[in-house]
Amino acid sequence: DIQMTQSPSSLSASVGDRVTITCRASQSISSYLNWYQQKPGKAPNLLIYAASSLQSGVPSRFSGSGSRTDFTLTISSLQPEDFATYYCQQSYSTPRTFGQGTKVEIK
Amino acid sequence: QVQLQESGPGLVKPSQTLSLTCTVSGGSISSGDYYWSWIRQPPGKGLEWIGYFYYSGSTYYNPSLKSRVTISVDTSKNQFSLKLSSVTAADTAVYYCARECLHSRWELDYWGQGTLVTVSS
Q: How far apart are CA A27 and CA B66, in angstroms?
């Protein structure tokens, strides 16, 4: 199985801050990397697919980059509705695997 | 607009079989463009991928659960189902159904709202 490791596990930030979350794969996954946002009690919501493609309807302050084993999710200016947990997921091979999550909290 | 909705018992006894159904609306489960997937999330923990079903009949299950999992489809009802046998407390989780998009990078683009299944006597 491909292991996905996110860092940090949690972070505190203020509204307006630039936030960066990283995700590392245990082997090359090309650009088969997706990012999801999950709010408490809700299903995950797709933000970024194919490492850097913005899902329809997702605000442009979200962006993704990276390839092979190292990937980044960036929120350019954190908004109140962005406080949530973020997961990366590889879709390069089965079984699909997720990172452990990064919880973004209010500072 | 595609919508997925999970249904099934919220409480299952240990050693019994967990059975859930996902009803898809706004799109056909017989489309060759998607895998139909199950994912679960134990309370307070991360996401675990269970497996998927393709309209052709092929399936793939997470090896960690393979001996206990069956995913099947009822095209007449536009539904797909999950069965997990010999459950224990470790199977207590919110179970999500989701659609995996094959014509892109196999991302999970639509999810159900999730249903909590508790394993307890």
A: 23
